[in-house]
Amino acid sequence: MRSTSPSRREVLVAAGAAFHVLRLDCEIADVLRRQGHPDQAKPLLNTTLAAIDPADDLMAVSDIHRRLGLILATDSDAATAEEHYRAALALLEQADAALELAVTCRLLGDLLTRRHHPRGIRSRQDIEKRTRDAVSMATLNG
Predict the structure, then answer these.
(1) By the 8 A CB rule, do 32 and 44 touch?
(2) b/e string for 72-109 if b means 16 or more Cβ within 10 A?
(3) pLDDT band, residue 1 (cuts 50/70/90)
(4) Cβ atoms within 10 A of the Cβ of 58, count?
(5) Rg of the chain in Å (alpha carbons)
(6) Which residues contact 134 (CB under 8 A, 6 or more apart)?
(7) Tens digits of per-residue pLDDT, 117-132?
(8) Tens-place pLDDT, residues 43-94
(9) Could you give phi then psi for residue 56, rounded to 5 degrees?
């Protein structure tokens, strides 16, 4: 039987902290993924992704796409993982987030290499160049 008192989640949402609840869900999903429960992490990330508008927080949405890519890359759904990595890259470029861009470029490059993607070598070279450029920008911007 469910308690009649509100859950912590309901209290936070009612207090206007819904965004923080969504970010917490994202962190919980990452813990689930690391503990070997991607089947529990995926729906949590998909729900969070649907609830956050990229215009409100490019970084949060790109982070969710990257985390979904990580799950799907090991979940035998490399094509969808690639879509999520590319969505994350587009948002990170808009946000001018050099370090996160470099990390995500590397993840995509690794995925393409593992898949023996027809454009894999060219894509890998492009990704490596973008990664070097992003790291250089991060170093210059201090």
Answers:
(1) yes
(2) bbeeebbeebbebbebbbebbbebebbebbbbbbbbbb
(3) very low
(4) 19
(5) 17
(6) 98, 99, 101, 102, 105
(7) 655 555 666 766 776 7
(8) 999 998 998 888 888 999 999 999 999 999 987 799 999 999 999 999 999 9
(9) -80, -35
* Rounded CA separation 47/104 (Å): 22
Q: Whose structure tokens read 């995500």?
A: 104
CA angle (6, 8, 13) in 5-degree steps: 85
Between the CA of residue 114 and those of 108, 109, 130, what are the distances in Å?
A: 10, 9, 19
Please state, in angstroms and rounded to a whole number, the distance separating the CA atoms of residues 7 and 12: 9
The structure tokens 């898949």 sit at 115
pTM of the model: 0.74
